[in-house]
Amino acid sequence: MIIELGHLALILSLLACIAQAAGGLWGGHTRHPQAVALASTAAVLQAALMTAAFAALTHAYVTSDFSVANVYQNSHSAKPLLYKISGVWGNHEGSMLLWIMILAWLGAMVAWFDRRLAPTLRARVLGVQALIGAGFLAFVLFTSNPFLRMDPAPLDGRDLNPLLQDPGLAFHPPFLYLGYVGFSIAFSFGVAALLEGRVDPAWARWVRPWTLLAWTALTLGIALGSAWAYYELGWGGFWFWDPVENASLMPWLAGTALLHSAAVVEKRDTLKSWTILLAIIAFSTSALGTFVVRSGLLTSVHAFANDPDRGMLLLALCLALTGGALALFALRAGALRAGGGFKPVSRESALVFNNLAIAALLSTVAIGTFWPVIAEVALGDIVSVGAPYYDATATPIAALIAAAMSIGVALPWKRADWRAAARRLRVAAALTLVCAGLGLWLTGEGRGLAALGVAMAVWIIAGSATDLAVRAGLGTGRSFELVLKRAAGLPRAYWGGTLAHAALGIMLIGMLGGTVWKTEASEALRPGERMEIAGFTLVYEGVEERRVDNYIAETAAITVLREGRQIDALRPERRWYPVAEQQTTEAAIRLTLGGDLYVALGDPREDGARVIRAWRHPVIGCLWAGALLLAGGGLLSLLDRRHRVGAPAQRRLAPNPDPRQRPNLDPPETQGAAP
Prior knowledge:
Number of domains: 4
Strand content: 5-15%
Order of helices and strands: HHHHHHHHHHHHHHHHHHEEEEEEEEEEH
Helix content: 55-70%
Structural class: alpha+beta
């Protein structure tokens, strides 16, 4: 009965979506107050219905209701509760349900929290948001229904993909989807602005918090996915340039450019068309990622489904949304009048250069991701694109972005003196050169890449620190207490941006530790034998087999020695899931501030030996620490009252003496402007 109620809630949610779209778009066009009110009410109702549908499917997973086909295909009675719950979104149908529920929640938040937004703009935003929801709801109901029953009901399920039975993968998809779907709000604001024919600083002020929310969530989602690949797949790396990894990177890059471009609109009332285009691209690449994961077009360990038929329907839906938005952009963008101008040497120019470089990097990633398919279909060639392509193309662009970051924060708005900016950054430049030289000297193979990476990292961190010192008044003769007080009084958004910039530099150091500076070794060992790696001695003691929950584990005992003294004991595993008939690798990692010692258990040999693979990754912890700081910077900026969703309340409408006349919904000139 609960499943049938969930299915009914899903159907009713589609009807609420249609009502929301009609009320929002019609109300925004005609300024009809009842239609505008309908859009907000339908948005809240749709969120409630989607929550009920998702709760019904979750209940079926928790209670192991194998009469539901989706539960049978992706769960098992012996599975731990955490993975029963995460199994809800560990498959195509359930993940789409979560995707749409987040979409509905965000629409309801716009209806609830954005009441001070101009009524017609809010109505159009909700209308566009509902069109997206209606398309995906129709896709789920007609092609991917998670509530289908089986008769007779099986006694047990086929289990969840073992690779997804991990705490990191339990939380990775929700954050990732919040990031993907969060950009739909920026998309809806962009399309609504084109329909309104007006983009101003107040519009940018409303777009930025939603973009920050999506960007922060996507940052956490990507970081969790990278950490999962690092310790779960047993290959010693954190990023493989996998198509699905790239599919998450592309909207992150577009969202990063959108954040900076919206800042220019807010501060200088310019780059309006470019900002609208970035809002469209950010969500379009998110929708493209949804298609890639589920179409089977590109092979990936992260893929949920391999169904070309449903994939083509998803592609058609994505093309309709993107094509419609771009067509409207082509028709209406020319009418958006630019505001204030700026000189070639200014913060605006640096941000424009930064955005163009990010767009080039996004294009590079997109070409590398989809070129194998294009080459096979158009040319009949079977090609693969891997790390060498990205190292050769993405690294120079990333270096340009790193250079522009520190230069941009040193420049004032509108016009700047490049000599003054150079003087401000002279200490950062000297420190960068010294550290790059040390990286070149201390690194063996890959010296050039190491020197470039160190230079980029130090330049970003030193540039951020320099700007903070200047704003706090350090070196101007003020007392230390006054400097601290001045620094503490800086806006949260500034602290968030500075922290995020520095975090990127910290992450670069960690990336170097996991790539250029890493050491690896692989040997077949019998019990009692040992191997050497980066000053450590690993002694293989043997393997123990045990049964745990729904899998059988082979656990190796590895004693870690340094200078003949035992310093640790590691337990790498290989797990066999009999129901899914699949094997996974669980690496054992010794975490220290200086770096990770990473050990994975390999295949057995006929002579009784086992392959032991080991890696030493110096300072790779900087990668994860930097990722957390990066997301923390986004969250801190979001907590700034100037960037939170909110604006002065609308002026109350005077009582209308004639009830037959509609109230005037035209906002006053100052409406929507944030304090």
